[in-house]
Design goal:
By secondary structure, the chain is mainly α. The protein has one domain: Methane Monooxygenase Hydroxylase, Chain G, domain 1 (Up-down Bundle). It is built from seven helices and no strands. It has helices at about 5-40, 45-75, 85-105, 115-120, 125-150, 150-180, 190-220. It is elongated, with a radius of gyration of 19 Å. Mean pLDDT is about 90; it is low at about 1-10.
């Protein structure tokens, strides 16, 4: 490969990384809004909850548009050597995070939960802690992606942190669901199902973050970074 072509490809790869950073930035914003939505639920501020959902919906659409542009650019160029499929998988997983933020938030606006079950789930901090761990996993994922450009050691350090947050999210999720089902017969059955689905969909946020970190490990094993 000629020197000019080499530097041309490097510039275009950097352009794609700029899009990737924008993509994950929008995704983090969507998950952050989901955590704010939980605070509105706690305060029974349903009008604010609805408006916040609209913000998540907008961020998800923007993330989807950026995702489409990156995929088009990668598909039409000779980028990343034999690792193109891995990068496309990363982008798909990141997009799934934004989708999960939107889909889980939607579960809370399809019908209004009764005050009793809302008060019950916020009697301890586990419900909020679960979403804090999901958000932290995605924020740390941004550092994993940054590490791809900085070097393998930088990426590896943050990969282990993402995995730790995902494990913590799983542990707290189990506790939250157990607590809900412990008194399920005291609440409207539709509300119990609604909360269960909401939590399970939101859990995909941390799961997809871990999946991305696993793909980055594959890239490092292949010699990227």
């Amino acid at each position: 490969m000629g020197l000019r072509r080499f530097f041309s490809l490097k510039r275009r790869e950097q352009e794609i990384f700029d899009f990737i950073h924008r993509h994950i930035g929008l995704t983090i914003a969507a998950v952050d809004h989901l955590k704010v939505l939980i605070e509105y639920l706690k305060m029974h501020e349903f009008d604010s909850l609805q408006r916040n959902y609209s913000e998540i919906d907008l961020l998800e659409k923007k993330a989807d548009d950026v995702h489409r542009k990156i995929v088009e650019k990668i598909s039409e160029g000779a980028f990343f050597g034999g690792m193109r499929e891995d990068f496309l998988n990363i982008l798909e997983k990141v997009n799934n995070i934004a989708d999960s933020a939107k889909d889980s938030a939607k579960m809370l606006i399809v019908r209004r939960l009764e005050d009793e079950i809302i008060n019950y789930i916020f009697e301890d901090e586990d419900f909020i802690r679960f979403f804090s761990y999901c958000l932290s996993a995605v924020v740390e994922l941004k550092e994993v992606i940054n590490g791809l450009e900085k070097g393998r050691d930088a990426a590896l350090k943050h990969i282990s942190i993402v995995e730790d947050y995902e494990e913590k999210a799983d542990e707290v999720k189990a506790k939250v669901l157990e607590r809900i089902f412990k008194k399920a017969d005291e609440f409207n059955v539709l509300s119990v199902i609604q909360l269960k689905d909401f939590i399970n969909i939101a859990d995909n946020i941390a799961d997809n973050a871990e999946d991305v970190s696993d793909i980055v490990l594959i890239l490092i094993a292949k010699g990227y970074s």
